[in-house]
Amino acid sequence: MKNKNMNVVERALAPTPKWFKILRTVGIALATIGGTIIASPVALPLGLVSAAGYLVLGGSIISVVSQTAVKSEEEPEPVK
After folding, report:
1. d(CA 75, CA 40)
2. Mean of the pLDDT values across residues 20-34?
3. pLDDT tens-digit map of 53-70
4. Strand locations in the chain (E)
5. What is the phi/psi pair of residue 69, to 5°?
6. DSSP letter (8 states) at residue 41
7. Rounded to whole angstroms, how far apart are CA atoms 52 and 37?
8. 62 near 24, Cβ under 8 Å?
9. What is the C-alpha separation between 52 and 47, in angstroms, rounded?
């Protein structure tokens, strides 16, 4: 398998599978929503601001992990 010895830059620039592209988009949306709530100019309840911080953290992690997923060079075996 060719993908075993990739560095971080090569892995990030390699083609990403469709499912992980969807996850990356969801992660970016969650992080954006959380950032918008945190940066809100009105006073919001502490629980909502704390939850927004977790949205930013979770969305960022989902996005980064999804970006490093790489399409396999191997053809899957057909199911018999």
Report:
1. 48
2. 95
3. 999 999 999 999 998 888
4. none
5. -70, 140
6. S
7. 6
8. yes
9. 9
- pLDDT-derived band at 76 (thresholds 50, 70, 90) equals low
Q: Which residue has the tokens 């950032």?
A: 35
Task: Check the CA dihedral 61-64-66-69 and report its sign.
Answer: negative
Helices (H), the chain: 8-13, 18-38, 46-67
Closest CA to 27 of 52, 53, 70, 62: 62
Residue 74 gets which letter from DSSP? S
Q: Give pTM, 2 decimals.
A: 0.75
- pLDDT computed for residue 68 by the predictor: 86
